[in-house]
Specification:
single chain, mainly beta, four-stranded antiparallel β-sheet
């Protein structure tokens, strides 16, 4: 196995880029060539963005049709990462920041600086005490040294304007050998 990732862009596992590597990849693609509108443009050279996810609301009443997006938003200067929640009411022609979500855990060492792999899910029906249209955001949250990985969950009952931390529902190993890429879906029985 040969690693072609430049040392200055390696997160230490010889496989995945660090925030500077993600920034270099993102800055190397000019979306305007493809006629694509940009979901988010960094405000400074200290920002890195990755792993965007977009959903179209279908069970949210008057908000139906709205696009919601989330992505990793990392500061290259050592500041903690967040998930930005962006919205578009015109099929992606324009985007605005709706909210920001940070590490939900508290205690020693928190907030952790690395938030990876966000995933948005809209309840298609009432589930427990929560009506159709309730949103779940889940993601992989890690400390700076990558010594463990936690799947955290947040909930929004106002179409993504505000988020409440729910729980850490799974804990895995190190960054290179831990849990990765959380997903949520319902089975055919609605569970």
């Amino acid at each position: 196995y040969q690693n072609y990732l430049a040392a200055s862009y390696d997160n230490g596992d010889r496989i995945h880029p660090n925030p500077a590597g993600y920034a270099a990849m993102g800055n190397s693609i000019y979306l305007s060539v493809f006629g694509v509108n940009v979901l988010y443009s960094p405000n400074s050279s200290n920002e890195a963005l990755a792993y965007d996810r977009v959903i179209r609301l279908k069970h949210s009443g008057s908000a139906n049709g709205t696009l919601l997006a989330s992505f990793e938003h990392t500061g290259l200067n050592g500041t903690s990462s967040t998930y930005l929640i962006r919205q578009s009411a015109d099929d992606g022609q324009t985007w605005s920041t709706l909210s920001t979500v940070a590490d939900g855990e508290t205690g020693s060492g928190h907030p952790w600086s690395t938030l990876y792999q966000p995933f948005l899910f809209e309840f298609p029906q009432t589930l427990g005490a929560f009506p159709a249209g309730t949103l779940i955001l889940t993601g992989n949250v890690m400390p700076p040294d990558g010594s463990t990985s936690h799947f955290e969950e947040w909930r929004s009952t106002d179409h993504g304007a505000t988020w409440s931390y729910v729980e850490t529902y799974q804990i895995g190993g190190t960054g290179g050998n831990g849990i990765w890429e959380p997903f949520i879906e319902l089975n055919s029985a609605g569970n």
